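Go through this chain.

——
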Amino acid sequence: MTPVMFTDSTGYLPEWLEDTSRFIGGACIALIAGTVTVMTSQMLLIPGASSIPLFTMNMAAYGAMLMVSSLNKEIKRDMEKINWNPYNSDVNAVADSKSISFYKGVFVFRYGNSGGSAFSYGVIGLGRGASINTVRHEYGHHKQQRLMGLAIYTPIAAIPSLISAANSAYNVHANRWYERWATDWGNRGLLWF
């Protein structure tokens, strides 16, 4: 269907055909990326090498969101905000999302009714009230995971961060070395864009 053949004078495919194509393409991406993630999952523990399964896991999530966007208008709107780009670097589009987004290759999902809480462990989870600074900070934690591998990241940064966030005032928590490091890396283009 092309404007040249006068079957669609606007030059756009019908929405149902775009949705079907997205669903099929998303299924292919999710299947391939999911398979590679399973095959490389032991690399999650290895410093530096954890980048491979973290990347494929997030691409599997991208494929899944392409599929789901055909069935869910809110997810479709969120994907349109980032122009369907999993490497989106517009932090405002991520902060404005309702259900899901992607930030620099990392799947982001929203949870709760309000509040600015967040976490990063393979993917990024953002409370509905999270700011753009929170998005960047959690992306910094994702960079730490890729560098250290989960075997080192979990006891050195993830668990202490959870304990600190639950038991410390915000200023005390934000000034811990692993939190300052995440904020610094999240605000800069250091290590894998």
Remarks:
- The chain has one domain: 15-187.
- The CA atoms of residues 2 and 8 lie 6 Å apart.
- DSSP finds eight helices and four strands in the chain.
